[in-house]
Amino acid sequence: MSNPELDAALNSLIDTALGYIQTLQESPSATASSDVVYDEKFFRTQLADSGKVLGHYSTKLSLVGKTGSKDAPKLAKELSKVIGHVVACVMSVPAAAGNTVRTELSSVTTTLLHSTVRFANSFLESPREVGGGTRVDYLGSTGLIWDICKQLESVSLSNAECVQKVVRRNEALVCDCIEEIEGFLNGDDIDDLDDGWDDLINEDDHITDGEEKTALSALEKELVNNSLIISKAGRMLLKKILSILNKPAHKTEDVDMEYVTALDTVSTLSSDLSRHLDDMASLFTCPIPMNDIVGDLSNVVSTCKEIVNTAKLVADRHEKSGEDKDGKDVKWLEMCKGQVEKVWERTKGTETAR
Q: What integer pLDDT is reported at residue 23 of this predicted model?
């Protein structure tokens, strides 16, 4: 049943949500002041209440949207107001809260907005091409909205906890890279796996075993070993950071922006480390491109050293809380950096010896 008024309200809802998505992508906290400490409890309540209202209105619209009800356009308009309130809350989070927590909130809110767009689009007489993956019916998209509202309500408002989440994810990626390098060193060549190509190419197109597998020279083997050692050091470094963040930090009356910034920097650098290691791990094929591997390994080493320098400040704040009075964490970080530099010097030597 055609309902021009509802279509107009739904199109307005879609345009509003898409506009908010662009706003969040461009500046997730444009209205946030750098020196304001926000009330986490109040903010949590605002998000929770907004999520419940959004779920309530979307459920009501799913029940009457296809019936031609006069209430349907009003519900669509109310949804526009609610998502506006959610976005305003997220954008009001100040810099003092930390960039990582603001990014996490922005990401979850963006997902919520995409789901709202898909929900509204499912009622249109002529659905719009708005992207967002497979089209979901209005009942299915209502469930998605409820799920994401719960996720928004439960997202951590602690920057340290959000940083832990990022570091933990990157640590898992680093583990994958280490497994790739170990597999190469142990002779588990990816070409030996049944990846489906055998059904698509002729026997004549196969590379012979003699061409495919070449014994590593002493220098090549040393490079692979050193790369593996440094990669494992990178993983140990991320695990140490997780251990440090599990301890309570020293609390101050004023916002410790140096600590907040250090946490955000550690988060960013952990992502840089996993990316550099992934780039390097992809190069371990025969014949070994030694120069390229050394270049990527140089990026890994530089990132590890940056992580140590930043993590020392984080560890210092936790040391002041009484959890590490002897400064063992800072000493460990320095020792790790020293070992990485030592192996790196050996690696540069192998390049020179070629």
A: 92
d(CA 160, CA 259): 10
- Determine contact, residues 315/247, Cβ cutoff 8 Å: no
Helices 138-154 and 40-64 cross at an angle (nearest 10°) of 170
Three-class SS string for the chain? CCCHHHHHHHHHHHHHHHHHHHHHHHCCCCCCCCCCCCCHHHHHHHHHHHHHHHHHHHHHHHHHCCCCCCHHHHHHHHHHHHHHHHHHHHHCCCHHHCHHHHHHHHHHHHHHHHHHHHHHHCCCCCCCCCCCCCCCCHHHHHHHHHHHHHHHHHCCCCHHHHHHHHHHHHHHHHHHHHHHHHHHHCCCCHHHCCCCHHHCCCHHHCCCHHHHCCCCCHHHHHHHHHHHHHHHHHHHHHHHHHHHHCCCCCCCCCCCHHHHHHHHHHHHHHHHHHHHHHHHHCCCCCCCCHHHHHHHHHHHHHHHHHHHHHHHHHHHHHHHCCCCCCCHHHHHHHHHHHHHHHHHHHHHHHHHCC
Q: What is the average per-residue pLDDT within 188-206? A: 45
Q: In sequence order, what are the residues at sequence separation of 6 or more whose Cβ sits closer than 8 angstroms to the Cβ of residue 71?
A: 60, 64
Q: Are 315 and 330 in contact (CB under 8 A)?
A: yes
Contact call for residues 344 and 222 (beta carbons, < 8 A): no
At 190, the pLDDT band (50, 70, 90 cuts) reads: very low
Q: What is the pLDDT of residues 32-46, one digit of tens each?
A: 455 555 678 888 888
* DSSP assignments along 153-195, one per residue: HHS---HHHHHHHHHHHHHHHHHHHHHHHHHHHTT--GGGS--
Q: How far apart are CA 235 and CA 228, in angstroms?
A: 11
List strand residue ranges (DSSP E) for the chain, in order: none
CA distance 322 to 139: 53
Q: Is 282 helix (H, G, I), strand (E, B) or coil?
A: coil
Count of Cβ atoms closer than 10 Å to residue 144 Cβ: 18
Residue 68 to residues 14, 55, 136, Cα–Cα distance (Å):
19, 21, 21
